[in-house]
Amino acid sequence: MAAELDLPQHVLRFWEGKFSQIRPMKRGGGRRYYRPEDIDLLRRIRGLLYDDGYTIKGVQKLLKQESGRGADGAEYASPQASDGGLGDSEKAALRQILAELEDIRKLV
Q1: How many angstroms separate the CA atoms of 52 and 80, rounded?
Q2: In whole angstroms, how far apart are CA 85 and each of 70, 80, 82?
Q3: How far apart are CA 77 and CA 65, in angstroms?
Q4: At what angle do helices 36-46 and 9-18 cross, to 10 degrees?
């Protein structure tokens, strides 16, 4: 599972502790079996954290709001201030810059 999501196993275990929505079935020997909805949620969390720049608290709040439990009044922890987040064109530009920087790093 960790390889499929391109994440270390310890990150998955950490996220299980931070996001109560992730509930893999545990079998003998402590092996975890992720259901399709767990995998979808893990992909979404990964995208929010790594691609969109949310913090753990920001993703927790977003998931809590979406589950219909309501907000707890905590600050919305997206790295963008009051602009509501980056638009698609800004995200695309940042991805392009990142790709160029990774290419430069390979040359060094």
Answers
A1: 10
A2: 21, 5, 8
A3: 13
A4: 100
Tell me the two tokens of residue 14: 């950490």
Q: With 70 as the cut, is the pLDDT of residue 101 above it? A: yes
pLDDT tens-digit readout, 37-87: 889 999 999 999 999 999 999 999 998 888 765 444 444 444 443 344 567
List the structure tokens of 41: 């949620």
Domain 2-77 part of CATH 1.10.1660: yes
Mark 39-56 as b/e (b = at least 16 C-beta within 10 Å): eebbeebbebbeebebee
Ordered by start, the domain boundaries in the chain are 2-77, 81-108
Q: Report the alpha-carbon distance of residue 22 to residue 36 in Å, rounded.
A: 11
The C-alpha atoms of residue 54 and residue 25 are separated, in whole angstroms, by 27
